[in-house]
Here is the input.
Amino acid sequence: MTPQRFQENLFRIKEEVGKVLVGQESVLRDLIYCLIARGHALIEGLPGLGKTLMVRSLAKVLDLGFSRIQFTPDLMPADITGTMVLEEESGRRTFRFQEGPIFSNVILADEINRATPKTQSALLEAMQEGQVTIARKTYQLPQPFFVFATQNPIEMEGTYPLPEAQLDRFFFKILIDYPQDWEMVEVLSRTTTLYQPDLTIVLNGEELMEMSSFAREVPTSHTVYEYAINIVESTRPNNPKSGEMVRKYVRYGSSPRGAQALILASKVRALEKGRFNVSLEDVQAVCLPALRHRLILNFEAQAEGISPDLVLEDLLKRISP
Here is the structure.
């Protein structure tokens, strides 16, 4: 693997998915960053903006197994992980483990906040350890393994907000907005005609893991490490480095996982730009998706309409590289 080949592979993925996806370039880029960094993504957007299509297309282009789980209030943990079933063979009854839909490479957890906390927690071990434990026995999940969870920012009645511990396990939180006018024209021309794109496999799971390993080899200076640490520490209201906006609106700041996400995503971005070294600009570019879900705002922020992005943007202006 070379930086040039890495860059070419990333471009081929974008180009192929672009056959079915119109616009949303930054969203697709962030999803690819998650894949290469071996991280999970929380995708938030209104219905009908192509979240499922995007994830399904990525899985197909990368020749990865895909499984979609629709989260509902009556969904049980066993419906995700699998369960023990009783079988009778040659007059003997035995229990056999029947795998659930989580046994795939790419999991689309659709509307994850509609399931109960008990069911949401079924993903915790899978996301962190790449395994599930059923009846005291551990089963390894296929590798590579990714969870792309979606949630709807409206219709919050009857939903269960994700606990902070689970939010922290997502590498990125990605926001999807409405398409622009010219993008809508292209969407309509594709979806209201007989247009049927044929996606081609450009990489496989093994090659994706090779890209992931190569990205981790990108050298990072001590200055970049310190910059990422300063950003993360400045998100904590009880830290002397935090600014007025953080102290006023933030209850809890980012965990060390936030700094890890900043550095890993910065390495992938550096390779995308054709460099084999991480710059401070790379860290700034990935700051919002890496940290926005790791900031827990207080009631005052909610009352005044302050979002995590506003806090992070103010923080980046204040912290000198």
